[in-house]
Task: inverse folding
């Protein structure tokens, strides 16, 4: 069995941009600085991003009760080095990984916050080149999902085409582009992007938290106990925070992380209620790091509400199929720590719609024994179901050679 981990994170190495841009762009790209023992990414001498969720320290020791190992020099090199990541995967019994960003957010919103367009485009394309280099160096085992400049649709199509031609398998997208002043995903503005996904088979991925604006994500990181990282944005006023303010920082972190799993309910329900899959029948969409235990309830709720609420002829004609039918044919969700969902709910969700992940090196990642965990929680399932969930679904979706 070649387990394919469909959500792990690639921490941005310290020289990601400075080692890849000409002298003329030095000073105009993010640089990593450590001040008073706290490492962050700086742009124009202002904090731009944190170093992300890193809980595996040097010596491959997992740090509990924290979100960010500080300073950066204390993070295990496997978080960003290709050779060391592959060695870590070998130790864990993982064949391949689908990789998402870490400190710079889970879509391109951090990059969009860069005001200068030349700097913004350079930062995004250099980052994507780093991802492509990682994939090539891994010899078919690491598959990063690239960022898209969705603020410019012509540039988005050029970047997608450039990377797909090099072998990129998918991209990570904001599920709420309207928060940064763009149209919503089903509107005509995004049609060229969806059309290219439909034609090429590249995968659009929606990672939890990907829709947050840069300032909101950094503020959220602070609200759930990340002020120690030195990268938290200002406190949000007039909005209820995930956790009660009377909680300690660690309990705030646990409360916020628990609620974050449910943030992809919105994108899944909207996709299943829309006609997007009628227009682009080859689309396969991934909900990353969102878990699966809640999926049967959402499927049942969508069907019930559809019958109760969608009655007018023009509403019924807005999409050709029922919500659950779209889910079965076009959507994937994934689990890692769950036991009940894996052992008892796969048939209700659909074994063809489930993937697995480790979430390394984030908090609550499966470390050091994911293979043993999957074997234990799936021990009573038929062999064909286990093989499909651990290997075949991902291999087919991301076109990974497992021969």
Result:
């Amino acid at each position: 069995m070649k387990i394919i981990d469909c959500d792990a994170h690639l921490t941005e190495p310290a020289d990601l941009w400075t080692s890849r841009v000409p002298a003329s762009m030095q000073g105009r790209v993010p640089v990593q600085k450590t001040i008073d023992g706290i490492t962050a990414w700086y742009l124009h001498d202002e904090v731009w991003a944190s170093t992300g969720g890193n809980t595996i320290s040097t010596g491959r020791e997992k740090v509990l009760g924290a979100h960010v190992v500080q300073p950066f020099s204390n993070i295990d090199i496997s978080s960003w080095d290709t050779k060391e990541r592959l060695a870590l995967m070998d130790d864990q019994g993982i064949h391949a990984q689908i990789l998402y960003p870490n400190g710079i957010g889970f879509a391109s919103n951090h990059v969009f916050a860069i005001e200068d367009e030349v700097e913004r485009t350079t930062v995004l394309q250099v980052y994507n080149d780093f991802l492509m280099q990682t994939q090539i160096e891994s010899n078919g085992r690491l598959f990063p999902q690239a960022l898209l400049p969705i603020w410019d649709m012509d540039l988005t199509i050029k970047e997608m085409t450039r990377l797909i031609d090099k072998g990129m398998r998918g991209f990570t997208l904001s599920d709420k582009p309207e928060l940064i002043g763009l149209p919503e995903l089903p509107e005509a503005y995004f049609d060229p992007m969806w059309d290219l996904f439909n034609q090429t088979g590249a995968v659009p991925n929606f990672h939890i938290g990907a829709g947050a604006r840069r300032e909101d994500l950094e503020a959220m990181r602070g609200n759930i106990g990340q002020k120690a990282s030195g990268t938290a944005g200002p406190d949000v006023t007039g909005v209820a925070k995930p956790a009660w303010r009377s909680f300690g920082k660690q309990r705030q972190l646990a409360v916020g992380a628990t609620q974050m799993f449910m943030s992809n309910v919105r994108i899944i329900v909207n996709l299943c209620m829309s006609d997007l899959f009628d227009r682009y029948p080859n689309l396969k969409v991934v909900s990353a790091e969102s878990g699966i235990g809640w999926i049967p309830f959402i499927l049942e709720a969508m069907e019930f509400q559809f019958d109760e609420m969608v009655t007018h002829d023009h509403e019924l004609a807005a999409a050709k199929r029922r919500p659950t039918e779209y889910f079965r044919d076009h959507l994937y969700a994934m689990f890692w720590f769950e036991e009940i969902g894996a052992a008892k709910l796969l048939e209700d969700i659909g074994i063809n719609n489930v993937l697995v992940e480790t979430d390394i090196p984030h908090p609550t990642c499966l470390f050091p024994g994911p293979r043993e965990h999957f074997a234990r929680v799936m021990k009573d399932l038929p062999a064909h179901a286990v093989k499909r969930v651990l290997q075949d679904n991902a291999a087919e979706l991301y076109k990974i050679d497992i021969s």
User: Anything to note?
Assistant: The two ends are 11 Å apart (CA to CA). The chain has a mean pLDDT of 93. The CA atoms of residues 90 and 96 lie 10 Å apart.
